[in-house]
């Protein structure tokens, strides 16, 4: 790839639009000076924000468009009126044309997926895209996928998810062979849906490359960090993600309430402030903001729509890593080593 990592930004996406996108890009640039940006958005809005940040302006090129995809817009509507001219489409198009190495958007998730799949198409050997995220654990972080790109999965698709998740973990965590587990209702081989059991057999047989497959994991293994990569289908993954986010907010609310309830608790908080700051940092969702749409012929990063500048910067950081360390090449090499059709036939028989 080129000396610089070229990042296309949907400058109008997200709940807060250009203000957060530009501020986040500025933070990310300080961490990765070898980055250049192509910004797609309304020049009247984005221009003054860039003028206030000379270093970012020098590293950026602004392409004007006043068409933005609404956060509540249906994917079909977004494709109809946003194709060819919206900030989201043009940022994806930059990756398609080879003008950018990665696209980052905080916009409408369904629209981003629909446009990316329509324009970039799927990688050879991948049937459907997946949304992968970084998940804080007791050991550090894990990759979890799919967390909502598509509903349901057969055995070959789950095995493909394992390949893609393993490639992503090797990039993010700098591991030669990340450990992989299939999310199930138990660790015993006889438990779970047939598709999950068949996927486990495919991975054990080496049908999808030399994945370090550890077998089944359960829900509590996600937070424990039992494996580097947790694989599930999008319906279950999205519920797990939203449950974890809700639980984190609930615990934070409980702690705030408990620490302000009595004078003794307030005094105790003063002595334990450093410990609580450490806990707050570990639970900060901004630091793991950003999901990767895997399986496409291009790297697409989805930032949380309601994040702030620090959170958007984390999504840009993730995009930088995916491009700099050649995520697509790693996935392609592993998929190219597999013979899924033959083995899947053997499993079915």
Describe this structure in words.
With 349 residues, the protein is an alpha/beta fold. It contains 15 helices and 11 strands. Helix 8 links the parallel strand 7 (179-183) and strand 8. Helix 7 packs across helix 8 (194-204). It is globular, with a radius of gyration of 21 Å. The relative contact order is 0.16.
Distance between the termini: 44 Å
Helix/strand class: alpha/beta
Bin the helical content. 40-55%
Radius of gyration: 21 Å
Helix count from the secondary structure assignment? 15
The unreliable regions are 339-349
- Mean pLDDT equals 87
**Dominant shape:** globular
Total number of beta strands:
11
| % residues in beta strands | 15-25%
Topology:
Layout: E1 5-10, H1 18-31, E2 35-41, H2 43-51, H3 54-58, E3 60-64, H4 75-82, H5 87-97, E4 102-105, H6 109-120, E5 130-136, E6 141-145, H7 155-172, E7 179-183, H8 194-204, E8 212-217, H9 219-224, E9 229-231, H10 234-259, H11 263-271, H12 273-283, E10 291-294, E11 299-302, H13 309-324, H14 327-336, H15 340-348
Parallel strand pairs: 1-2, 1-4, 2-3, 4-11, 6-9, 7-8, 7-9
Antiparallel strand pairs: 5-6, 5-10, 10-11
Helix pairs in contact: 1-2, 1-13, 4-6, 5-6, 7-8, 7-14
Summarize this, please?
The protein is α/β, with parallel strands linked by helices and 349 residues long. It has helices spanning 18-31, 43-51, 54-58, 75-82, 87-97, 109-120, 155-172, 194-204, 219-224, 234-259, 263-271, 273-283, 309-324, 327-336, 340-348, and strands at residues 5-10, 35-41, 60-64, 102-105, 130-136, 141-145, 179-183, 212-217, 229-231, 291-294, 299-302.
């Amino acid at each position: 790839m080129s000396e610089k990592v070229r990042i296309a930004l949907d400058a109008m996406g997200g709940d807060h639009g250009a203000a957060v996108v530009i501020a986040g890009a500025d933070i990310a640039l300080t961490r990765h000076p070898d980055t250049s940006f192509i910004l797609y958005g309304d020049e009247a809005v984005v221009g003054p924000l860039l003028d206030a940040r000379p270093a970012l302006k020098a590293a950026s090129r602004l392409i004007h468009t006043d068409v933005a995809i609404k956060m509540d817009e249906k994917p079909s509507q977004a494709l109809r009126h946003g194709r060819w001219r919206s900030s989201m489409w043009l940022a994806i198009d930059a990756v398609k044309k080879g003008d950018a190495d990665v696209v980052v958007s905080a916009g409408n998730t369904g629209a981003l997926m629909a446009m990316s799949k329509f324009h970039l198409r799927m990688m050879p050997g991948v049937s459907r895209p997946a949304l992968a995220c970084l998940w804080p654990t007791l050991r550090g972080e894990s990759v979890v996928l799919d967390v909502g790109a598509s509903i349901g999965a057969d055995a070959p698709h789950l095995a493909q998810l394992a390949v893609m998740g393993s490639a992503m973990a090797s990039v993010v965590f700098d591991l030669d062979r990340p450990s992989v587990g299939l999310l199930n209702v138990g660790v015993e081989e006889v438990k779970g849906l047939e598709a999950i059991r068949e996927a486990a057999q495919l991975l054990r047989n080496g049908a999808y490359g030399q994945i370090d497959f550890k077998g089944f994991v359960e829900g509590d293994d996600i937070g424990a960090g039992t494996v580097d990569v947790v694989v599930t289908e999008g319906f279950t993954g999205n519920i797990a993600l939203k449950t974890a986010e809700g639980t984190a907010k609930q615990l934070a609310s409980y702690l705030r309430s408990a620490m302000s309830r009595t004078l003794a608790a307030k005094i105790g908080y003063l002595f334990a402030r450093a410990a609580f700051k450490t806990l707050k940092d570990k639970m900060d969702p901004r630091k793991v903001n950003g999901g990767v749409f895997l399986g496409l012929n291009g790297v697409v990063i989805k930032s949380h729509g309601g994040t702030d500048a620090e959170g958007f910067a984390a999504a840009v950081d993730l995009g930088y890593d995916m491009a700099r360390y050649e995520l697509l090449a790693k996935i392609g090499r592993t998929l190219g080593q597999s013979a899924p059709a033959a083995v899947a036939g053997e499993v079915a028989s």
